[in-house]
Fold this protein.
Amino acid sequence: MGEFELIRRYFLPLGERQESRSLILGLGDDCAIQRIPAGRDLVFSVDALVEGVHFPRNYRPDYLGWRALAVAASDLAAMGADPECFTLALTLPVVDEQWLKDFSKGLKAASDAFGLELAGGDTTSGPLALSLQVHGSLEQGAGVRRSGARPGDLIAVSGTLGDAGAALGYLTESAPSADMVAVLERYHHPRPRLDLAQSVRQYASAAIDISDGLLADLGHILAASGVGARIDSARLPLSPALMRLKGVDAVNYALRSGDDYELCLCFSPANWERAPESLKSQLTVIGSVEVEPRLYLDGVDCSVEAVPAGFDHFRSES
């Protein structure tokens, strides 16, 4: 199968929905055309995923299709953006039709679930790798940045933390228990919190998606905002499955493991007070922002400089 037949058979169907509010011309031309209405900003982010680095070798292709788009879309949620469309550059070692069929099935399921239409891309030969760029939009000036946290803000997280990190130990389990299956699902099918995007831009002062672990990603907010924080680990939201699997170590997974793609958010007390219960019921307050640029975990000084910075591709100890 040649490159153009590959694209026609497995990827053109992902661009036929035409549901994007801004995509004027999608797959099939030299470029896609996106028209952003007056009064809105274009928000975009790109993620590269390499086999053996970002996902296991011989990983199920349908899982990879979902996971690749979910990881990229999570950045839109952190900015409070509405999803529009995405592009895909795919590098393949060989043309395996069953692999492509399964991968495109997973990618389409994610595309439908997240409201992101495939607008274009490229395919080439080489080691298995993907690069996805996601586009979103929001009201002009409404984007939520990492730099907006202020002393006195409450720090909250969505969902539960630590499940996906724990799942890494069970990826090759031949007969996983029900609890293992529960955390594995969080790894294979992360759910970017696009459902919170409107509330994020309306109420949050700062936000980031939790991809490298809570401490690392909160550290990015604190550094960008020039502030510190106090965190109470007893407040961390933990799933029953994680607690049964990891016991007292579950807290450590929630603090330091990545791949959850939940949101870490800061709210002024006034904004938290006026936020609807429908939002607050999905969040857990775990601490507060401090003036002094240091991080206190359970009252113990754990300075921002000492907090892991997240995965670094170019550091030998990573």
